Amino acid sequence: MEESTIIRFEHVTKQYDQDTPVLDHVSFEIEKGKFYTLLGPSGCGKTTILRLIAGFIEPSKGNILFNGKVINDVPANKRQVNTVFQDYALFPHLNVFENVAFGLRIKKMKSADITAKVKEALRFVNLEGYETREISEMSGGQRQRVAIARAIVNEPEVILLDEPLSALDLKLRTEMQYELRELQRRLGITFIFVTHDQEEALAMSDEIFVLNKGKIQQSGTPTDIYDEPINRFVADFIGESNIVAGKMVQDFEVEFTGQRFECVDQGLDANEPVEIVIRPEDLEITTAEQGKLQVRVDSQLFRGVHYEICCYDEAGNEWLVHSTKRATVGAEIGLYFEPEAIHVMRLGETEEEFDKRLEAYDEVSHAE
Ligand SMILES: Nc1ncnc2c1ncn2[C@@H]1O[C@H](COP(=O)(O)OP(=O)(O)OP(=O)(O)O)[C@@H](O)[C@H]1O
After folding, report:
1. CA 151/CA 42 separation, integer angstroms
2. Under CATH, which number does the domain 284-336 receive?
3. For a Cys staple, 229 with which of 168, 174, 235, 272, CB 3.0–4.6 Å?
4. Choices 3.30.200.20, 3.40.50.300, 1.50.40.10, 2.60.40.1120: CATH for 5-227
5. Distance CA 120, CA 128 (A)
6. Residue whose CA is closest, atom 7 of ligand 1?
7. What is the atom index within ligand 1 of the atom nearest the CA of 17?
8. Which helix (H) or strand (E) holds 278?
9. Cβ atoms 108, 130 nearer than 8 A
10. Residue whose CA is at the smallest distance from ligand 1 atom 4
11. Cβ of residue 46 lying under 6 Å from some atom of ligand 1
């Protein structure tokens, strides 16, 4: 294990009852000082991962390590972890100061030390001078900051944030995204953030884990995941995508819409059925003769920065294009794209399966 690793999941499975597991052999590593996001649809297991890290529940199988030690049955209050909940879980009958001081009083810290620490935590979240305010007198964004101050005052090594922005309106939510990211940089504490909002995840994270049905589908930086989605679920969940069925012809050549195209993906067998993803911004409109694909323009919307153009090819596949050029509705045009724009995905493959396939491919190609 790398020295910078703070949390490690080793084949963690969580089953609440006899049915299918909520988490199914999940393995990952969290490094110190980074901003991580767990992203996925409702019910995919995001909160379950946070609760396992916090120590509110134990894994059914597998190990959770913290700084190299197995902590499966270490109680929550003995872990260097604090959680910021979706509804903030502040005490309505205590003022701002006492809400933040609560954990320190339980630890029986000296009064002068408590005052100094609470002041510092409130300064970090820009709430100096609000000490005697009641929680009911604070706005949604301010309550959010009190909840964060309460988490950081304990000086945890990791802060877990369970959809902390979901109760805020869009403008405040965007402001808080910047604020949280900035705060994490200044504190240098590891943040693990849960959201089902892909734009939020792309904007805030050093690393994203995309989850579906209790499995990590893909992990990586926002650009890795956006540029190289590993399967249809990820491609669909993150950003807009054109996805069509195809099959491999040979390495570096793939067939879809009845035509063959050069591509850069490798390690798949000839004739293997695949799915093709091309992002709308990787398609450029041109004349029918110059295009690699011939399509008819069905509709067009002006989106400010670009036109969103919807086209259909002869086989009836829809192609969404984001272009700064304008098209003519009803016109026969061509779509041009580079080989790198074609992402070839094996049906339903997860990251783990993808890594194994590439390893096997590398071994074979080195042996040759
Ligand atoms: N205590 C429990 N007992 C039984 N099933 C549970 C329990 N807690 C969660 N589940 C189930 O586990 C699955 C994953 O729940 P989890 O809360 O981790 O999902 P999530 O990705 O955080 O979803 P959301 O975005 O809706 O909060 C769901 O199907 C949920 O119904």
Report:
1. 25
2. 2.40.50.140
3. 235
4. 3.40.50.300
5. 9
6. 16
7. 4
8. strand 273-278
9. no
10. 16
11. yes
Q: Where are the domains of the chain?
A: 5-227, 240-278+338-368, 284-336
Q: Looking at ligand 1, which atom is closest to the CA of residue 196?
A: 25
Cα angle at 75 between 71 and 76, to 5 degrees? Answer: 100
Nearest-CA residue for atom 2 of ligand 1: 16
Instruction: Determine the atom of ligand 1 nearest the C-alpha atom of 211.
Output: 21
Which string of b and e fits 81-93 if b means at least 16 CB within 10 Å? bbbbbeebebeee
Q: What is the pLDDT of residues 312-344, one digit of tens each?
A: 999 899 999 999 999 999 999 999 999 999 998
Q: Does domain 240-278+338-368 have CATH number 1.10.12?
A: no
pTM for the structure as a whole:
0.85
ipTM exceeding the 0.90 mark: yes
CB of 45 closer than 6 angstroms to any ligand 1 atom: yes
Tens-digit pLDDT profile for residues 230-255: 888 999 899 889 999 999 998 899 99
The residue to mutate among 44, 57, 60, 200, having the most atoms of ligand 1 within 8 angstroms of its beta carbon, is 44
List the residue whose alpha carbon is closest to atom 9 of ligand 1: 48
